[in-house]
Amino acid sequence: MKTAKDTNLTLCPKCHKLNNFIAEPQQCTRCHGHFYQRQHNSLQYTLAWNLAALIAFIPANLYPIMIVYRLGIPTDATILSGIGEFVDHGLYPIAVIIFTASIIVPLFKIVGLFVLVYKAYTGIRLKPGKNSNFYRALELLGPWSMLDVFVVALMVTVVELGFITSVGAGPAINYFTMTVIFTMLAANNFDPRLLWDKHIEDKNLRATKLSE
């Protein structure tokens, strides 16, 4: 099995023109843009952004995401306590949606990116085809992580009854937004072609050892 890199070819990320690789930075023969055959320090940047997302994810769940004022008395509500409120009122579908978008999706994406970085670096149990599909699934999950932010913004807009009841965004909304942004940056910096490079490298290494 050969990759485009093995045949001295490279794909322009801007216009998707297949170019003969000459030197980095490569200049595209169609759009004349400059690019690299592989993203430089892809795993390092992905790991750094993913760690930042994990750190921001902790206060996003500990700090209040909403502050509800009833007759001027503030009541803090974290993501989990807000989900509990929906469950207590029998609003199970909304509770499931918020729990999935706020807890499951960001955590799944963070853990998934750590796994991909680990496999691309070590090659352990590496199945590049399946892992590339897994990476694309993680990319698709990114925008859905913002659902909780949209819900808070909607509640702040709709549930506004002056002094009787009002809703404000809590400090966790900032950390939650940072978590979403950091995971999106981590996913964008990960180069899935490294999975195939490592697979070919390990395959060639095993073939060399067998020939010896």
TrEMBL record:
Keyword list, A-Z: Cell inner membrane, Cell membrane, Membrane, Transmembrane, Transmembrane helix
Major site of localization recorded for this protein: membrane
Record-linked InterPro entries: PqiA-like (IPR007498), PqiA-PqiB_transport (IPR051800)
Pfam families recorded: PqiA
Signal peptide as annotated in the record: none
Membrane-spanning intervals of the chain: 47-71, 91-121, 141-166, 172-190
Subcellular location: Cell inner membrane
Protein name per Swiss-Prot or TrEMBL: Paraquat-inducible membrane protein A
Upper taxonomic lineage: Bacteria, Pseudomonadati, Pseudomonadota, Gammaproteobacteria, Alteromonadales
